[in-house]
Amino acid sequence: MAELKPEYDRTSELKAFDETKAGVKGLVDAGIKQIPRIFHHPTDELHKNSFVSNEGIRVSIPVIDLEGLKEDPRTHRKIVEQVRNASETWGFFQVVNHGIPVSVLEKMKGGVLRFFEQDLEVKKKFFTRDYSTKSVVYNSNFDLYSSPAANWRDTLFCFMAPDPPLPEDLPEVSRDIMMEYSKRVMQLGYLLFELLSEALGLQPDHLKDMDCAKGLAMLTHYYPACPQPELTLGTTKHSDNDFLTVVLQDHIGGLQVLHQNQWVDVPPTPGALVINIGDLLQLISNDAFKSVEHRVVANSAGPRLSVACFFSTVLLPNLRTYGPIKELLSEENPSKYREVTVAEYVAYYQAKGLDGTSALLHFKL
């Protein structure tokens, strides 16, 4: 008689993994050679193709140089045009000469590394799944119990604006740089929202006046080297549940954008920041700007580090509703979405988890 294999108890495995509080890094530190089944993704999700055009040229997302933006009106107009094209066709672009010194970017990456590679007992003090009362949260996979497969990454999450945590509530090893970097990203955000407003044909302050730049969440991600990168992902395919995201990635790469149904690599560019349109900006622009699905492939070279700063007011007691901007609507371009608060949108997105479908569909008229 054939031996019956013990049934796979996914819930118990998830719980056992979670209770170590050591994250994916803990598995690597334990010397595993095969990744647990909770991290296995369906084969069809794992195709790592990168888009090459008919002419054999590798397609890549636009890089926009912000040099001379304030000095020269012609340069300003050109940059607004580039932002418009990138936001309409890609939903993603990289910016260089953005005003944040390379030394600050390097210090920020150093801070991420120090946090995740410090003694586990120190890290555990930040471990929780309670986002409502804790201002600084460390864990692995925010949607661990709701997503179909776990991702190969650990995360430190905190809101840095408009009400940053007290300095003593932030991790000691990265406290100073987290505060400095978030202030600089806020300044860059103001500038980007001005350019995006103009790209929509609105006054420069329009999106800022709608509070799009008011809140900032910082997520620092740590993707350890994976012994079986062909079986899992660093981050599942998803779009972002905010207005705008600013991403600092290191030299390893792995970020990919879905463009014309093909995965396109976002190559690490020294000194550049990756900018992407969030769902809420697609909603208020009435689909003029695209919130595009993206993912991170697992790697065997790691650890890969990234810092994603999300412009979102989800934590504010903000009852403001967001729908398509009236100035963009016409008989030919009627409203495509119902009004929604940021909190309602994010609650739906979080409950759904990263399952590969857009939360925007739920709010379409």
Biggest sheet, in brief?
8 strands, mixed
CATH topology: Jelly Rolls
Overall pLDDT, averaged? Answer: 93
Number of helices: 9
First-to-last CA distance? 58 Å
Principal-axis shape equals globular
* CATH architecture classification name: Sandwich
Question: Over all CA atoms, what is the radius of gyration?
Answer: 21 Å
Task: Report low-confidence residues grouped into runs of 5 or more.
Answer: none
| Beta-strand fraction estimate | 15-25%
Provide the helix percentage: 25-40%
Number of strands: 14
Q: Which secondary-structure class do the elements indicate?
A: alpha+beta
Order of helices and strands: HHEHEHHEEHHEEEEEEHEEEEH
Q: Supply the CATH superfamily name.
A: B-lactam Antibiotic, Isopenicillin N Synthase, Chain
Order of strands side by side in the largest beta sheet? 1-2-10-7-12-5-4-3
Total of domains: 1
Give the C-level CATH assignment. Answer: Mainly Beta
